[in-house]
Design goal:
The chain has 72 residues and is mostly helical. Helices cover 65% and strands 0% of the residues. The chain is built from three helices and no strands. Helix 1 crosses helix 2 (26-42). The protein starts with 8 loop residues before the first helix and ends in a 9-residue tail after the last helix. The model has no long low-confidence stretch (mean pLDDT 93).
Length: 72
Amino acid sequence: MPMSVKLSDELVKQARQCGEVYQRSIPKQIEYWSRIGKILEENPDLPYSFVKDVLLAKKELESGDVTPYEFG
């Protein structure tokens, strides 16, 4: 459910800058930060790079952009 919230100008500025780098809108960038922050709070022993890689792998799996790994 969409909801309007008041955000600081500095947060919006930072989201705009990072969003441009990663081709995300300001709201999508803030949602991304929120999601990462929530995951890291719930899993304080996991490094950011691991969480980021897991989210990327999950998205690749959902899109079918994977191939089976064959051992040996």
